[in-house]
Write a structure and sequence with these properties.
Blueprint: H1 3-6, H2 31-62, H3 99-103, H4 105-123, H5 127-134, H6 137-140, H7 145-157, H8 161-175, H9 181-190, H10 194-205, H11 211-227, H12 231-239, H13 250-265, H14 269-282, H15 289-295
């Protein structure tokens, strides 16, 4: 349990399942041609589904600085950041409890059923329904990491940044994991808690996580710099060790898109045009790259 929660946690998504093509096959086509047409339709449906999902998420990532709920931070008022246990001291077996150990076997049955309902709802992207099942569970079993993880991710999807950060910090303390650090950093970015963004990014950078997770963390850290108007520094951070690959994976596309956006905002128009052009060549339906590229001509 818990693997469902981690799926796509840092907004790195698997290719959606294609929508079945209900159009009757052309009777004039050979079986080989009919099969090829079916595969083309499936690929087209998958691209359309992925584009719909990514459009809002990519814009959300690059426009976090336009949130109006939190006022801009003032010079000299930056906090020292949250005090947290070093990772080397986190995640010991004595800290993380199984559900049965935490609440007893009888209560564990009820909580496990609620957790399974929440995971099902999360998988279906019905985050409000997921939270209805999760609400209060962290108080009943505060040292069960699966509960804190799913609660944090659900609250993050609901835009409840402060509560989401609290749950994800608890999960960090219980497990010592860093794969959800991009999500945690994004919670702090939304609250304009810049020191905490920097601390979480530094911890992630030293963790040895996968390139996909590091790319997501880098996007958040660079975006936070951009939010503060430090566009040159943001471009430098997001450009570090980044090269356009021959075979792009999803995190390459996301990083290129965020970098292109920052370059445009920083006035580096030729580079922004190059990046948006590369993204268009990879997938012309990716987010709004065609419109962004046209606007730069």
């Amino acid at each position: 349990m818990g693997s469902v929660a981690r799926k796509g946690a840092a907004k790195i998504h698997e290719e959606p399942l294609p929508v079945p093509d209900e159009t009757p096959p052309d009777p004039d086509l050979t079986p080989e041609e009919a099969e090829e047409a079916r595969l083309r339709a499936e690929r087209r449906a998958a691209r359309q589904a992925r584009t719909k999902q990514l459009r809002s998420e990519a814009r959300e990532a690059v426009e976090r600085g336009n949130l109006t709920e939190a006022p801009p931070s003032k010079p000299g008022k930056q906090s020292r950041g949250r005090r947290r246990t070093p990772l080397s001291e986190s995640g010991s077996p004595s800290q993380s409890q199984k559900l049965e150990e935490a609440v007893g076997q009888r209560m564990a049955v009820t909580l496990r059923q609620r957790l399974e309902r929440a995971e099902d709802a999360y998988e279906q992207e019905d985050y409000r329904r997921a939270w209805r099942s999760l609400d209060g569970m962290a108080k009943e079993a505060p040292k069960v990491p699966e509960i804190r993880e799913l609660a944090g991710l659900t609250l993050y999807r609901l835009g409840r940044w402060d509560l989401a950060a609290r749950e994800l910090e608890a999960n960090r303390e219980l497990t010592g994991r860093t794969d959800l650090h991009p999500v945690l950093a994004d919670c702090y970015r939304a609250q304009r808690r810049w020191t905490d963004v920097e601390l979480i990014w530094a911890e992630l950078r030293a963790s040895g996580e996968s390139s996909a997770v590091l790319a997501e963390g880098r996007i958040v850290a660079a975006g936070a710099l951009g939010d503060r108007g430090e566009l040159t520094e943001a471009v430098r951070l997001l450009s570090a060790d980044f090269q356009l690959p021959r075979r792009a994976k999803e995190h390459h596309l996301r990083q290129a898109y965020a970098l292109a956006d920052l370059c445009e905002r920083a006035g580096e128009i030729p580079r922004a045009r190059q990046l948006f052009g590369w993204l268009r060549d990879q997938d012309e339906l990716y987010v709004d790259v065609v419109e962004r590229l046209d606007a730069l001509r």
